[in-house]
From TrEMBL:
The lineage of its organism: Eukaryota, Viridiplantae, Streptophyta, Embryophyta, Tracheophyta. It comes from Arachis hypogaea. Pfam families: DBD_Tnp_Mut (PF03108), MULE (PF10551). Residues 179-204 are annotated as: Disordered. InterPro entries: MULE_transposase_dom, Transposase_MuDR. Residues 472-548 form the MULE transposase domain. Residues 187-204 have a biased composition (Acidic residues). This is Transposase MuDR plant domain-containing protein. Residues 266-328 form the Transposase MuDR plant domain.
Length: 564
């Protein structure tokens, strides 16, 4: 009986839509889904009440029904879903029964019945027909909130793990990446440096306010059949129909005032969650039509755009304003469609800036952050019919990565918190963090610090090495991020010749000081055994660290061999 009344979470989409004909059948999308805890005794009225309480709308709104993403079959480890309407206690019992019959689906999904937007998967990305893709849905996403370093966090870290995290007189409130060291010297055509920022490529054209005198760009590709390049063999094109940056439906085109996708023109009263979503829709519309527009007015309250040929036979105009009470943007005036024709042919489009591209490639970057720029560039060109510059796609990928994983500075500031989390989760973890001071006007700012070095190893690694062969192999690999750096690693070998990583370090580069930092802590925490064999290359930094008299790496405590 206790198992039947076990509580579990239900994911409730209250602003989303239903997407059909996806790879898994029915799929729900939402901007901010809710988690509601239920059990077998929960009634339909209890569920409605919980949802309204979470939304803060109890007594102000009625929910007549929910749509349940019901699992129906499992084919090749893939669960297929359909849609079931839930409007009573009896219907709700079906969800409980399905959860027992399909243990693979631990978190049921519901969609509030007032949201009945349904969209089908967009036409294949390779289509060059302008009309065929004009009715897809607009991708929308929100930038992740900027995290602020907490002063109290430094105190907690200091109290809990001071001995193993490093010594600070006053721990910093914020930890930054090391000062930038450049982005490398890779050429654009170098396959090993595909994601390195190009040094000299023309400026992007993503500014909101543009000059009226710029030349017009024409429509998309006129070829009847899109031939996919070889790069597409490694690209999951279905990712373009999956959820976007933060759970939004990915696609392009206009929406009506109720949020339904499929319009080919804007409508007065049509609403957008924020200005970014509104601008993305206007830019995408312009790209799909193969025409240009200019921004007449743009501020925090209104946005006005006119066709570049306004007054020369075309009357296209759109005016959007912020509704302060609701915090949404709305189309107040619209003259459309365009009555002008493109006067020139171009392979690029001014509105296809890195923000638009970022929204399009977001699902692909989320599925594989190492996806190559050339793959994203060709996917963008096939989808929009225009070919953006390499630089613009590179910037779009950086923006997408930042939205998914936070930016570089935020990642470095999270290192102390990560260290604390690992040590609390896995007691016995050794982590040694070193920082460099931040100087402002010749004075040391004790509230902040630069990241310098980090050594860490896990308890299973320490214990496993005691049962391995008495040898350790050390090596490094360079990191190609914003701040560069080097990853040092030590690897052991068991009796069956299986390799086992036992220690790691992030350092500023490969030099005598960084190798001494790594090897001293490796000796202290992981490899205290005498008579150890160290295998490495002939780098002078390693030689200097191993020959230091007080580090314990000299014979007979340890011996050295070179890898060939």
């Amino acid at each position: 009986m206790a198992s039947e009344e076990e509580s579990f979470a239900v994911l409730v989409h209250h602003r989303g839509s239903i997407k059909r004909k996806t790879r898994s059948g029915v799929k729900f999308t939402d901007k901010n889904p809710l988690y509601i805890v239920v059990n077998r005794t929960t009634s339909y009225d209890d569920l409605v009440r919980s949802v309204l309480m979470k939304l803060g709308l109890e007594g102000a709104k009625r929910i007549k029904k929910f749509f349940y993403r019901i699992p129906v079959t499992i084919l090749h480890d893939t669960v297929k879903y359909d849609c079931l309407t839930i409007g009573s206690d009896e219907d709700l019992q079906v969800m409980f029964l399905c959860r027992r019959q399909f243990p693979e689906v631990r978190t049921p999904e519901l969609l509030e019945g007032s949201n009945r937007n349904t969209t089908n998967v967009a036409t294949a990305a390779g289509s060059s027909s302008m009309a065929a893709v004009a009715s897809s849905s607009v991708p929308v996403y929100e930038p992740t909130a900027q995290l602020v370093a907490s002063p109290s966090f430094a105190v907690d870290l200091n109290d809990g793990v001071r001995d193993e995290v490093g010594s600070f007189d006053v721990l910093p409130n914020a930890l930054h990446g090391v000062p930038p060291v450049g982005v490398g010297d890779g050429e654009l055509g170098d396959p090993d440096e595909d994601d390195v920022e190009p040094e000299t490529i023309e400026d992007d054209s993503g500014d909101e306010v543009v000059a009226a005198g710029l030349a017009l760009a024409g429509g998309g590709s006129s070829s009847g059949t899109q031939q996919y390049p070889p790069y597409f063999s490694s690209l999951d094109l279905d990712a373009t129909t999956h959820e976007g940056a933060l759970g939004h439906a990915v696609g392009f085109g206009a929406r009506d005032a109720e949020g339904n996708a499929g319009l080919t023109e804007f409508q007065v009263g049509q609403q957008f969650q924020d200005k970014d979503e509104a601008l993305l829709s206007v830019k995408t519309y312009s790209i799909r039509r193969g025409v240009q527009y200019k921004v007449v007015e743009s501020d925090h309250r209104r946005y006005v755009g006119k066709c570049s040929e306004f007054g020369n036979g075309c009357t296209w105009l759109i005016r959007l304003s912020l509704r302060k009470r609701k915090g949404i943007w709305e189309v107040k005036r619209y003259n459309g469609p365009h009555t002008c024709l493109a006067t020139s042919i171009s392979s690029d489009h001014r509105s296809l800036d890195h923000s638009v591209i970022s929204a399009f490639i977001m699902p692909m970057v989320r599925a594989d952050a190492s996806v190559r720029i050339k793959v994203l560039l060709n996917a963008t060109a096939a989808h929009f019919g225009f070919r953006p510059t390499y630089r613009r796609v590179w910037m779009a990928k950086q923006k997408a990565v930042g939205l998914i994983y936070d930016d570089w500075d935020e990642s470095y500031s999270e290192i102390p918190r990560w260290v604390l989390g690992v040590q609390l989760t896995m007691p016995g973890t050794v982590a040694v963090l070193r920082t460099s001071p931040v100087r402002v006007g010749g004075q040391v700012d004790e509230s902040e610090a630069y990241f310098h070095r980090l050594f860490w190893t896990f308890p299973p690694c320490i214990e496993a090495f005691r049962h391995c062969k008495p040898l350790v192999s050390i090596d490094d690999t360079h990191l190609y991020g914003k701040y560069g750096g080097t990853l040092l690693i030590a690897i052991a070998q068991d009796g069956n010749s299986n390799i086992l990583p036992v220690a790691f370090a992030l350092v500023e580069g490969e030099n005598a000081e960084s190798w001494t930092f790594f090897l001293s802590h490796l000796r202290q925490h992981v490899t205290p055994q005498p008579g150890l064999l160290v295998i490495s290359d002939r780098h002078n930094g390693i030689k200097s660290a191993l020959e230091a008299p007080d580090e314990g790496w000299l014979p007979p405590s340890a011996y050295r061999a070179f890898c060939i």
